[in-house]
Design a protein that fits this description.
0% strand; mainly alpha; Hydantoin permease; 75% helix; globular
Length: 455
């Protein structure tokens, strides 16, 4: 018998919370920079393929796992009707560890956004004498300031999560995500009329496979999973808050489709600025912060648009953090029997300590590098390219061998929709065979690359 559990009040609230978990940083911050680093069009094509072939089936699986069990990631992977013993829980523990690490550097990057909100209010981005590259470069050398900004962000995230699902997470997402969508559309239209727009669109959508490396293939898969917050337990937690009558495949399709579309829009927003302002497309994690201020400086109402955009970007970044935060809070509430507020404060404390590493990665720890990559980029790619695929593989195997097929069919098939009846065998085969095969293949490929580089 399932215990009482908080639920999302509306479908719209779930959509905004789920999309917000990816849109703020996974889409606007990370997608353009990994696309730039990996050569553009061919990487984008692979990302779209992996989003449909792997990320969507996994999203359905994670939401389903949460909805059936009403548990966090560890509780779902050791649910007694299916599992005897605790051997599957290592997958959940790895997902929890990954959530802490990603939340810690999300917290630091969200602090960057707060800094840019302040700079926008001061009019720095409409001042012809301001170089946006110097603004972010100077911030990266000031670890103490980054920690201060990260602390402000942690206080905001903690206050939202501590208030609960409907009053905190859902309410904030329903207010700020639509505003960000409107602002993004406005900026996208203007960006597409910049001189570098044609070159940018060709870079994004013309697949030059000569630029595609095996590392790019691995990163395309990792980002497809990352942008939907898969492999962390966040979507399992969100699934546990869905009402029984919610039809999972429909909800997952909406979330995945909008997220993929928004990722492409983010590329079309950022790269015309990149090519117009002659910013290096391989800049890395700071790419967003070196490009958008250039656009704001050219707009008639650039001062107000800059403030509005970075304020809304901050709330989208907050949604990303809240999703990871909530997965961890659900873990402490379910497994450690902690009250929500106590769990939220505990998560915030641990995250703050971990955030010190990312905050000082460009100053105190600036000499710690792997090849040409700094510490923040190494942490990011280690989680995205290794940990998330491993956790996702464990979850998907668990879904295939432990969750009864009749329960999966009951959640997947809508009696009023003939197409779900026809699609169920395809989804089941994808979950049991295709997704594990692709994940294992890409992990082995990545392992081979790592060994070859060592040699």
């Amino acid at each position: 018998m399932l215990r009482n559990r908080a639920t999302f009040g509306t479908r719209f609230g779930f959509y905004m919370a789920a999309i917000g978990s990816a849109f703020g940083l996974g889409t606007l911050w990370r997608f353009p920079y990994v696309t730039g680093v990996n050569g553009g069009g061919a990487f984008v094509l692979l990302f779209v393929f992996f989003s449909a072939a792997i990320a969507l089936p996994v999203l359905i699986s994670e939401l389903m796992l949460g909805k059936i069990t009403r548990q966090n990631i560890l509780g779902a992977l050791s649910w007694k009707p299916w599992v005897t013993g605790r051997r599957w829980r290592w997958i959940g523990r790895l997902g929890v560890a990954a959530s802490f690490v990603v939340l810690s550097y999300y917290t630091v990057v969200s602090g960057w956004v707060i800094h840019f909100v302040v700079q926008g209010i001061m009019g720095r981005f409409t001042d012809a004498n301001t170089n946006p590259e110097l603004v972010i470069d100077k911030l990266l050398t000031r670890g103490g300031l980054q920690i201060l900004l990260a602390s402000v962000h942690l206080i905001a995230a903690t206050s939202i999560v501590a208030r609960g699902v409907q009053n905190g997470i859902e309410k904030s997402a329903k207010i700020f995500m639509p505003i960000l969508f409107v602002i993004m559309i406005f900026l996208l239209v203007h960006s597409l009329f910049l001189p570098g727009a044609y070159e940018a669109l060709r870079f994004l959508f013309y697949p030059d496979f000569s630029k595609l490396t095996t590392t790019a293939v691995i990163q395309a898969l990792g980002h497809a999973l990352f942008t939907l917050s898969l492999g962390f337990g966040a979507m399992i937690a969100y699934g546990s808050y869905l009402k029984p009558e919610i039809h999972l495949p429909s909800e997952a399709l909406v979330v995945a489709s909008i997220d993929t579309l928004l990722s492409l829009c983010a590329g079309m927003l950022i790269f015309p600025i990149v090519f117009t302002a002659h910013v290096d497309s391989t800049t890395g994690p700071a790419l967003l912060f070196k490009t958008l201020p250039v656009l704001f400086g050219q707009l008639p109402l650039g001062y107000w648009v800059a403030i509005a955009f970075f304020v809304c970007l901050y709330f989208a970044a907050l949604s990303s953090s809240v999703a990871l935060f909530e997965g961890l809070v659900a873990y402490l509430m379910d497994e450690r029997k902690m009250k929500r507020a106590s769990a939220a404060y505990s998560i915030a404390t641990i995250t703050f300590l971990l955030a010190l590493v990312s905050a000082f990665s460009s100053s105190l720890f600036k000499n710690i590098k792997v090849g040409e990559r700094g510490l923040l980029e190494v942490i990011d790619q280690g989680i995205i390219n290794w940990t998330i695929p491993v956790v996702t593989l464990g979850i998907i195997i668990f879904m295939g061998v432990k969750v009864p097929d009749d329960m999966k069919k009951e959640e997947f098939v809508d009696a009023k929709s003939l197409i779900t009846v026809k699609l169920y065998p395809t989804w089941l085969a994808t979950v049991k065979y295709l997704v594990p095969f692709l994940l294992v293949g890409l992990l082995l490929l990545q392992l081979g690359i790592a060994i070859a580089n060592d040699l």
